[in-house]
Amino acid sequence: MSKVQSTLAPVTPISNVESITSDYVATLTTVLQQLDGKQVECLVNALLAMKSAGGTLYICGNGGSAANAIHLANDFTFGIHPGGNALKVESLAANSSVLTCLGNDIGYDNIFSHQLTVKAQPEDVLLVLTGSGNSQNILNAISRAKEIGMTTFGVLGFTGGKAKAMLDHALHFDIQDMQISEDTQVIIGHILMKALYQELKDV
């Protein structure tokens, strides 16, 4: 046997980063297979009906979900119709002065619900973004929205928490990972943006 034939190619060990990357991609892919297009269609139809009635979409979340709420408010203001026939939309997490005032004066649990008390109408829609589904300020926002007569939607992770049963419509991804949960929020939002763009682009 020749020296070349008898020499085995060295095996390169998979690094921790490579393993984390492949596991993350595989998990996210599996989780997204839980998504039901009919649920997305239900939300699209609700937002179109809201728009026709002159209503506003309010979005809220904490931490990374708060950033996602602001991101999606941008997409729904411009991305779905650059010409201006988009949604009236507001992220309840966007105004730091309002958030710090309400957090200081009436408590962090009420930072979203109080804004709905001041601004919201029955023709409006609330979209909550939450990993656990158990944050009290999210639960209070859902309760207040239902008292007002709003339609409520949520994108949830983990078990769905208490929010799942409270919402009119829950898009729930059963995943015990906060980062994956937050990824699903943006993905749902981008699907909505594309779907609404198709519906409104010729209007």
Strand content: 5-15%
Number of strands: 5
Oligomer: single chain
Count up the helices: 9
What general outline do the C-alpha atoms trace? Answer: globular
Order of helices and strands: HHHEHEHHEHEHEH
Low-confidence region ranges: none
| Secondary structural class | alpha/beta
Helix content: 55-70%
Overall radius of gyration:
21 Å
What can be said about the biggest beta sheet?
5 strands, parallel
- Distance separating the two termini: 75 Å
Mean pLDDT: 94
Going across the biggest sheet, name each strand in turn.
2-1-3-4-5
What would your notes on this structure say?
This protein is an alpha/beta fold. Helices cover 55% and strands 12% of the residues. The protein is built from nine helices and five strands, in the order H-H-H-E-H-E-H-H-E-H-E-H-E-H. The chain has helices at residues 3-6, 16-32, 37-52, 64-79, 96-105, 113-119, 136-148, 161-166, 178-200; strands at 56-60, 88-91, 125-130, 151-156, 169-172. A five-stranded parallel β-sheet has the order 2-1-3-4-5, sandwiched between helices. Helix 3 (37-52) crosses helix 9 (178-200) and helix 4 (64-79) runs parallel beside helix 9 (178-200). It is globular, with a radius of gyration of 21 Å. The model has no long low-confidence stretch (mean pLDDT 94).
